[in-house]
Amino acid sequence: MAESPSFISKLLHFRFWKHKKKHPFKRESKPREEGAPRSERRPDKPIKLAESQRPPSHVMEEDPYAVKIPIDHVVYQLWRLCRDQAGWMPTPELRLFDPDTDAQPFTPQEAAGERSRLLSTVTASGTARLNSCIPRPAPNGEEPVPVNLDAQTTIFLSSNLLSAWIFVYPPVGEGRDITQGDLLSALSSAGVSFGLNSSLLETIPGRDDRYFHLFHAAQGQPAIPGEDGVITDLFPREAQRKLPVDEFNRVDFTAATSTQNVEKDQIICHITPPTPGTPGRTVTDKDIPTRDGVPASPPMGRNTLLNEDGTALIAGRPGGLEFSGRAFQINPMLDIPGNVDYSSGNVNFLGDVHIRGDVCSGFTVRAMGNIKVDGVVESCTIEAGGDLVLTKGVQGNNQAVIRAHRDIYAKFLENCTVHAKENLHSECIIGCEVYSDGAVYVQSGRGTIMGGHIWAAREVNVNILGSKTEVRTSINLGGLPCEDFEKTQITQEIAEQEERLKDLEHQPDSPTKLSRMSKLRMQLSVNKLKLGQYTKNLEEFEASASTRPSGRLTFSTAYPGSRVKINENRLKISQETRHSMALLIDGEVRLVS
Q1: How many other CB atoms are found less than 10 A from the CB of residue 530?
Q2: How far apart are CA 11 and CA 63, in angstroms?
C-alpha cells in the first residue's frame, strides 16, 4: 500500500497549482496574427528594479568562511540517501564561523587554508561512510542483508589547534541516533578536552539540523604576546623653528629660537614598561608559549637620568634640551647679561649661549649648541653648533665671520661672510658673501639682496634683487657651497703647513725645532683627514646630481646688474624684471614669469 503524502508535500502542491493558475505579475502575451510584420511585436525590455528591491551588495560577495560543496560530492550522495529514507532532511552546510553564536576563530585570509583542509577531511570520512552503506551480497543468491549503521561523528581540528568542529552523519536503517555521550566520546578520542561548548553539545541531539551540519564545539585560548615598552615624548624631537610675522610683514627675530628650556627634575618623556605575555591553550589541552614584551630603550643622554621606578626620563640639571639623533641631552645655558667685550672676553662654551647685549669688534663667540644675540654684532667671529639667532643683525665692516651648523636667523646682514649649513633667513643682505648648503630666504620686511655674492645649494627667494644703481649682485645655485669653501680653505692651509714644514727641516736641530715640527705634523695630519671627508661628501653629492632638481631663483623685482649662475650656466639681467623665476631649462638659465 502506497504511503499517503505528508502535510508539507500537500501544502507545497497546493501553493504550486494556486500560483500556476494566474501569476499577478505575468503579462498575457497575444499571438501574432498570420502575415503581421515582425516589427509590430512588442519589443523585449529588461526588468528594472527599484533600489529597495535590489539585493544588497554584501549578498553577492563570497562568504570566506563557507565551504562550497559540489552537487556530486560524496556528502550530497549520503544526504540524498538519508533524505530518501527519512523523507526530509536539511541541506548540508559547512561553515566555519557563525556570527550569531560563535567567536570568530581566524581571519578571512586564514580561512582559505582551513576550508580546503575541512573539505578534505569531510571527503575522506564521507567516502568511508558511503562505502559502509552499500549492502553486501548474501551467499546462495539470497537478498542482500540490509545495512544498519549508527550515527557517526567526525571531528575537525584547525591547523593551530585552537578550534574543533563536529560534523555528524545520520544513522542508516535501524541504526541508533546521535546522543550527547557519542559527541563527548568522539571529542575525547580526538584529544579535545579544553574549551568545550557544553551548552551546544547538549542541544545538538535535539536539533533538526544536527546532521550534515558543522558545529563549533570547542574553542581554545590563543596566546597573547606581551606589549613592548613605549616611550612617550613630552618634547618634540625636531625643534620647531618658526618665524612669527606681524600684520606689516615684519619678523620678530627675538622669538626666533629653537631652544627648549627645561628645569631640573622636569619630565622629558614617560616610559611605559613592557607587559608579560599570556600563554595560550589548545583544545587538546596543550600549552601555547608566548613572548614577553621588550623593554623600551630610554633615550638617555648627557645630563638626563631615570626616576626611581624607571618610568620617566627627567632632567638632571636646568638648560637647553635637544635630541641628538639617539638620545635627549641637556646643554647648559650660558647667560651673558651684557656685551661680549673686554669685561667678558671671548666665549667658548659647550652648551647654549644667550648674549643680552652686543658682540663687539675683535671678539670670538663659539658654542656647541645654539647662540642667541639680542644686540648688534660687529666685526667679530661667531660660530654655533646649532642655530644662530641675531636679533638686530650684523655690521661686519668686511671682517665679521658668521657660521652655524644649522639655520641662521638675522634681522640684517651687512658687509660680512656668512656660512649656514642649512638655511638662512634675513630681511636684508647688503654686500655679503653668503654660503648656504640649503636655501636663502629674504622675503620679510624689505626683503632685499644688494651687492655681494650668494652661493646656495637649492634656492634663493627674495623680494628685491640688486638696486636701481645697478650694483653687481651675484646669485650662484647648485653644489654644496659650504663644503666647497671649506675644502678650498683646508687645501690652502695644508699647502701653507707643508711649506712651513719644509722651512723647519732646513733649520738647525734644536728642541724648539722638534716641538714645532711635531705640532705641525699633527695639525697637517688632522687637516688631511678633514680634506678627505670633504672630498668624500662632495663626490657623493655629485653622484646623486642626476636625481636631484637644479636650483632656482624666485624674486619680485630684479634690477640690471644682477647675475644668476646655475650649474655653470649663466644669465645676466639687463633690464628691470618683475615677478619671475630663474630656472635651468635645457641647459640654459631662463626667466619664467
Answers
A1: 15
A2: 33
Residues in the chain: 593
Q: What is the pLDDT of residue 410?
A: 94
The pLDDT mean for the chain works out to 83
Instruction: Return the percentage of the chain with pLDDT > 70, whole number.
Output: 83
In the predicted structure, residue 256 carries a pLDDT above the cut 60: no
Residue among 400, 404, 418 at smallest CA distance from 368: 404
Asked whether residue 67 carries a pLDDT value surpassing 90, the answer given is no
pLDDT at 424: 94
Q: What is the longest distance spanned by two Cα atoms in the chain?
A: 141
Lowest mean pLDDT among 361-375, 498-512, 570-584: 498-512
Q: Which residue has the cell 643682505?
A: 429
Residue range 384-400, pLDDT digits in tens: 998 999 999 999 999 99
Closest-CA residue to 321 (of 374, 368, 271, 263): 263
Say how far apart CA 270 and CA 310 lie, in whole Å.
9
Phi, psi of 43 (to 5 degrees): -65, 150
Strand segments (E) across 379-427: 381-384, 388-390, 394-404, 408-410, 413-420, 424-426
Q: Which single residue is written with the C-alpha cell 502542491? A: 13
| Residue 211 exposed, middle or buried by CB count within 10 Å (0-12, 13-18, 19+) | buried
In degrees and rounded to multiples of 5, residue 278 shows phi and psi of: -105, 115
Extract the C-alpha cell encoding 355. 648674549
Rounded to 5 degrees, what are φ and ψ at 495?
A: -65, -40
Nearest by Cα to 403 from 383, 423, 417 = 383
Contact 424, 418 (CB under 8 A): yes
